[in-house]
């Protein structure tokens, strides 16, 4: 998927301009470090003035300013001096930067030709010189060639989609092109796009789109390829260029443009002044996906999911500008604003459709807390022979903290440990017997928060070891004696649990404080620090500089092992089907290797589950799963989807595809309806009804999701462990 395609199908909250799923990959942070004047001679006043002048002018698309050249040099110095991975920026490394850049622009190899690559390879050993000089000209020219190829593909595709297809051939389209070769000529590229367009057309037909409507829809998509490419702004292009360098060093190092830096702060603090709605692009329109309950938009009573925003203004109706066709990030940018200010929206209600009459809605912006990303609790009641057992569950989507609010001394700043502590006290009052911390999909966050959170469950001692760029290892400890909860405990993990989640799960496992259940984690064992570039200049540009998120250390469990590559292996794993190929850290180019250091001295939990008890609980769980139709159906559903996901090619014969899709739909609908019946819900009559329901579930991020079979089984396992542990203790 190209950079443009990655950018266009994004769902954004108005308080957050990353896709919601991006939270699953939020990086582990240490502190914000100021490096004023540490990289050599400050830039001259002339350079700063020329950069400011260029910034104040209208910069043409595809051109960068002296400010970008200045940032390039700063970033280069920071990477070479402060990155954990020591590397040499030389001719050989230059080739890695070029490859990374091309992979960012055209990862599927559907735009550039072999001749293009040969022309780019003239510069293969020169990017070290360009970077040292702050020279972005070659990278910009490659991007211009990319724009040219996008325009050519757009013209070809819009022309080709108007002509009929032969849909009875035995040709196939390669879906996974990451290992494909560059096409040798424009003629070969046309043949590839013939298949690519035909495959897209067949997909529309299989989705019950009428042929004429499919052609119209795809033609609009291909026309928009050029539009979206031309809308890329200088800062976004610069971010792509710099990240080719950063990504060639190590996958978790990246440059954040001023706008991206703002969004990063929002991700960590979980709050921003806005209207409280989630948006996404729907063709040329900005569609409201979800409305935050109790937020400013919700309180108007005039905004609903499915509505489309076609105009935005500030304070007055006369200021409303048409925003149809705008990029989502630009729409978000003008809707957000200061608390107490008014934004005016022109909205097409979902009920009246695109041909309906728009209405004007005035919304007063207010502080929004992203409650759906904060810690939350629930209680699961398990029926056991001895009676009902109350298992408390704390769902933790990320390790967040509002750095700015904490530094200001705000008493109620958002923070994982503060929030979880409050939830634990409430669960204790409600009389829970056991506790599960659900870290599935938790991609990490604040390092300080994971250390303090672990301290709620252990008395005192080391939590994680940090090895920095100097080779020194620091041990981060919980210094507070006592625990907030000392009862039976489980941590639920999956392949999306990364970074801070792995520190927490690893510490709980190493102390034998609780049982780890689920899938092996992602395997991200590195620490990132955000360095603001402006801290170096000692002088301010008319527009802000960005930040560099740099890998500054590697963390190790207290048992001395890194989670890098290997991740945390659960004590009691699920046996679930997997997508073929590597997943997680080991799938990334240039990732740091796994290694081991010395063990940090610690004292095991005195009520730990022993190996015999673990085996007893595992055997009982396997027996229970084998006789649980709901669990078995869920696994069958996963297997069906994984099998489809493992397919590398697609037939371009419509009848064959219809037969295959019909079989898949029949199997999926049957499995989904089994789950519906098991949950006491009505069955879906058609696949369209199922798809509509799934889309609604995915959009409705503010509604509490039901307890799934894995969480329910984890609760049973934990209860079994506690029972077996009590029996084992009584025999001693």
Summary, kept brief:
With 732 residues, the chain is α+β, with helices and mostly antiparallel strands. α17 (500-510) links the parallel β17 (489-493) and β18 (515-518). The protein starts with a helix and ends with a helix.
Distance between the termini: 61 Å
Shape: globular
* Average pLDDT number: 84
Catalogue the unreliable spans: 1-62
Q: Helix coverage percent of residues? A: 40-55%
Strand proportion, as a percent range, falls in: 15-25%
Number of helices: 23
* Structural class designation: alpha+beta
How many distinct domains?
A: 4
Q: Evaluate the radius of gyration.
A: 27 Å
The total count of strands amounts to: 22
Largest sheet entry: 7 strands, antiparallel
Would you mind describing this structure in some detail?
The structure is a single chain. The chain is α+β, with helices and mostly antiparallel strands and 732 residues long. It folds into four domains: 3-10 and 20-254, no CATH class; 271-369, Pdz3 Domain, CATH 2.30.42.10; 371-605, 2-enoyl-CoA Hydratase, Chain A, domain 1 (Alpha-Beta Complex), CATH 3.90.226.10; 609-732, no CATH class. 42% of the residues lie in helices and 16% in strands. The strands form five sheets. Strands 1, 5, 6, 7, 8, 9 and 10 form a seven-stranded antiparallel sheet that branches. A six-stranded mixed sheet has the order 12-13-14-17-18-21, sandwiched between helices. Strands 3, 15, 16, 19 and 20 form a five-stranded antiparallel sheet that branches. The longest helix has 25 residues, at 654-678. The protein is globular.
């Amino acid at each position: 998927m190209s950079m443009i395609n990655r950018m266009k199908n994004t769902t954004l909250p108005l308080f957050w301009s990353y896709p919601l799923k991006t939270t699953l990959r939020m990086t582990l942070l240490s502190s914000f470090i100021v490096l004023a004047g540490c990289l050599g001679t400050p830039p001259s006043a002339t350079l700063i003035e020329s950069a400011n002048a260029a910034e104040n002018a209208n910069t043409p698309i595809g051109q960068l300013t002296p400010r970008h050249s200045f940032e390039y040099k700063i970033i280069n110095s920071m990477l070479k001096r402060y990155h954990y991975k020591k590397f040499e920026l030389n001719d050989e490394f230059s080739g890695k930067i070029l490859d990374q850049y091309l992979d960012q622009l055209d990862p599927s190899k559907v735009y550039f030709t072999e001749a293009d690559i040969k022309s780019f390879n003239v510069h293969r050993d020169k990017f070290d010189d360009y970077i040292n000089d702050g020279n972005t000209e070659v990278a910009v020219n490659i991007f211009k060639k990319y724009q040219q190829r996008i325009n050519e593909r757009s013209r070809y595709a819009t022309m080709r989609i108007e002509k009929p297809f032969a849909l009875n051939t035995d040709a196939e389209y390669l879906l996974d092109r990451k290992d494909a070769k560059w096409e040798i000529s424009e003629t070969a590229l046309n043949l590839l796009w013939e298949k690519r367009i035909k495959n897209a057309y067949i997909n529309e037909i299989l989705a019950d789109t009428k042929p004429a409507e499919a052609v119209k829809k795809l033609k609009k998509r291909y026309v928009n390829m050029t539009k979206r490419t031309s809308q890329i702004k200088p800062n976004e292009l610069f971010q792509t260029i710099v990240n080719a360098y950063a990504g060639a060093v190590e996958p978790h190092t990246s440059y954040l443009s001023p706008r991206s830096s703002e969004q990063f702060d929002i991700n960590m603090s979980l709050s921003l002044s806005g209207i409280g709605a989630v948006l996404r692009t729907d063709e040329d329109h900005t569609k409201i996906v979800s409305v935050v309950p109790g937020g400013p938009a919700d309180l108007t009573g005039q905004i609903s999911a499915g509505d489309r925003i076609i105009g935005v203004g500030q304070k007055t109706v006369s200021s409303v500008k048409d925003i149809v066709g705008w990029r989502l990030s630009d729409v978000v940018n003008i809707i957000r604003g200061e608390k107490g200010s008014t934004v005016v929206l022109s909205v097409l209600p979902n009920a009246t459709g695109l041909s309906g009459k728009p209405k004007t809605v005035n919304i007063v912006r207010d502080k929004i807390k992203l409650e759906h990303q904060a810690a939350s609790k629930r209680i699961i009641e398990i029926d056991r022979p001895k009676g009902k057992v109350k298992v408390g569950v704390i769902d933790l989507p990320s390790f967040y903290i509002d750095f700015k609010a904490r530094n200001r001394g705000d008493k109620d700043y958002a923070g994982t440990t503060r929030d979880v502590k409050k939830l634990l006290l409430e669960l204790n009052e409600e009389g829970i017997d056991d506790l599960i911390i659900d870290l599935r999909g938790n991609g990490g966050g604040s390092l300080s928060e994971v250390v303090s959170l672990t301290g709620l469950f252990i008395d005192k001692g080391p939590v994680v070891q940090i090895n920095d760029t100097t080779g020194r290892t620091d041990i981060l400890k919980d210094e507070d004696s006592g625990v907030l909860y000392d009862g039976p405990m489980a941590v639920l993990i999956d392949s999306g649990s990364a970074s801070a989640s792995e520190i927490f799960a690893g510490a709980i496992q190493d102390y034998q404080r609780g049982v780890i259940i689920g899938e092996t984690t992602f395997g991200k064992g590195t620490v990132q620090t955000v360095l603001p570039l402006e801290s170096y200049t000692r002088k301010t540009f008319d527009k802000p500089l960005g930040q560099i998120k740099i890998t500054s250390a590697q963390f190790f469990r207290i048992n001395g092992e890194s989670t890098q590559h290997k991740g945390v292996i659960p004590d009691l794993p699920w046996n679930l089907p997997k997508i073929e190929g590597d997943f997680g850290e080991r799938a990334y180019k240039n990732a740091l290797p796994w290694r081991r250091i010395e063990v940090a001295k610690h004292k095991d939990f005195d009520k730990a589950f022993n190996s015999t008890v673990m085996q007893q609980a595992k055997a009982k769980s396997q027996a229970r799963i084998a006789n649980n139709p709901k669990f078995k159906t869920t696994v069958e559903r996963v297997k069906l989807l994984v099998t489809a996901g493992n397919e590398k090619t697609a037939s371009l014969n419509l009848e064959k595809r219809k037969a295959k899709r019909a079989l898949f739909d029949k199997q999926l609908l049957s499995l989904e309806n089994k789950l519906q019946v098991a949950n006491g819900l009505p069955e879906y009559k058609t696949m369209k009804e199922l798809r509509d329901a799934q889309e609604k579930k995915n959009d409705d991020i503010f509604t509490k999701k039901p307890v799934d079979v894995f969480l329910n089984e984890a609760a049973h396992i934990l209860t079994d462990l506690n029972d077996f542990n009590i029996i084992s203790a009584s025999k001693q």
